[in-house]
Design brief:
β4 and β5 (82-84) form a beta hairpin. Helices cover 21% and strands 45% of the residues. Strands 1, 2, 3, 4, 5 and 6 form a 6-stranded antiparallel β-sheet that branches. The chain has helices at 5-9, 94-112; strands spanning 15-22, 25-40, 51-61, 68-76, 82-84, 90-93. By secondary structure, it is an alpha+beta fold.
Length: 114
């Protein structure tokens, strides 16, 4: 059974909430998932029967000018249940991603030479 793309894409336009610790206690940020792109990690189940679909989300937050990019994934387990699989995600301003991506590209090139 494949991953349900419509279910993954149904999150576009919906609210998102982030909870994270600060020096003054826990803070909550509310935003809206504006855009989602899927990068199919698997087309066939991995050993153990799970399928994965990585997602890149553009999220806008109240009171913030620059949107954020969040990377996460969905999985469909061997039992057929499809769910958000990311226990933690990286969510950064686009400015920060412009610094991260070249560093990742260099790391991948170095790993390819090993």
């Amino acid at each position: 059974m494949p991953i349900d793309k419509a279910k993954i894409m149904a999150a576009e336009g919906k609210p998102v909430t982030f909870t994270y610790p600060t020096r003054r206690g826990v803070r909550r940020s509310r935003g809206v998932l504006r855009s989602r792109r899927i990068a199919w990690a698997d087309r066939k189940p991995r050993k153990g029967g799970a399928l994965y679909a990585d997602v890149g989300d553009i999220i806008t937050f109240e009171g913030r000018r620059e949107p954020r990019l969040r990377i996460g994934y969905y999985l469909r387990g061997p039992d057929g249940t499809q769910r958000w699989g990311s226990q933690t995600t990286i969510t950064e301003r686009l400015l920060i991603w412009r610094r991260i991506l070249p560093a990742l590209r260099r790391a991948m090139n170095e790993a390819g030479r090993m």
